Amino acid sequence: MRTSKNVYYIYLLTILFITLSGFGQMPIFKRYYISDIPGLGWLAIFYVTHYIHYICAALFVGFSAYFITGYIMAGRKYLKLTVTGYLRGVLISGLIATGILLVIRNFEGYIFSHNFIIFLDLSHLALVMLFLFTSLYCLIFKKKWAVGSEKWIVDS
Ligand code: HEM
């Protein structure tokens, strides 16, 4: 299995839109007039950002399953995950776990306790900030997800 640059660019686009739509869940783009910029009006429409977040979340879970399966099936013979690779893996697992529970929270009839919902929301948001800053750090300092055989490496 070879991970192409196209897959990597679609992954980056997914991260961009899952982040924009995620923050679109909070009333910040209207409050700070960002949604008044031509072409960005959709950022202030809750249900538009809500469904974009769900679609990107499904893609994000799909990408994670694709990379984990590739690594377990073959990659681990050629690759060694770096410390920042493990850290990003843990943060992504936390984002997916809290995200899935937040999706369940939105189903009718599922009653999580008030405190648990606050805990879920704050931990999802804390994981988002940790993931975004870690990814920025890795981009600036060219920290790779894994080291090993070039044929498996995609620039991080
Ligand atoms: C890099 C990945 C992700 C980012 C940057 C992100 C970002 C965010 C942000 C900023 C919020 C708003 C939190 C708040 O209102 O306090 C949010 C809410 C939410 N996220 Fe994510 N998220 C990510 C991944 C996921 C995944 C994988 C799922 C589902 C499997 C998910 C499901 C949700 C749900 C259901 C909400 C609550 C929406 C509502 O208010 O009903 N997120 N996300």
Which percent band covers the strand fraction?
Answer: under 5%
Q: Strands across the major sheet, in which order?
A: 1-2
* Radius of gyration computed on alpha carbons: 17 Å
Mean pLDDT across every amino acid position:
89
Q: Considering DSSP H and I runs of 4 or more, what fraction of the residues is helical?
A: 55-70%
Largest sheet properties? 2 strands, antiparallel
Q: What is the rounded distance between the termini?
A: 18 Å
User: Helix/strand-derived class?
Assistant: mainly alpha
Tally of individual helices? 5
Order of helices and strands: HHHEHHE
Which oligomerization state do the chains in this entry correspond to? single chain
Number of domains: 2
Number of strands: 2
Bound molecules: protoporphyrin IX containing FE
Low-confidence stretches: none
Shape: globular
Key descriptive features of the protein:
156 residues, two-stranded antiparallel sheet, mainly alpha, 2 strands, binds protoporphyrin IX containing FE, globular
Summarize the model shown.
This protein is mainly α and 156 residues long. The protein is 69% helix and 4% strand. The chain folds into 2 domains: 1-73; 80-156.
Write up what this structure looks like.
By secondary structure, the chain is mainly alpha-helical. It has two domains: 1-73; 80-156. Helix content is 69%, strand content 4%. The protein is built from five helices and two strands. The protein has helices spanning 5-23, 28-31, 46-78, 83-106, 114-140; strands at 79-81, 146-148. It has a two-stranded antiparallel ribbon. Protoporphyrin IX containing FE binds next to α1, α3, α4 and α5.
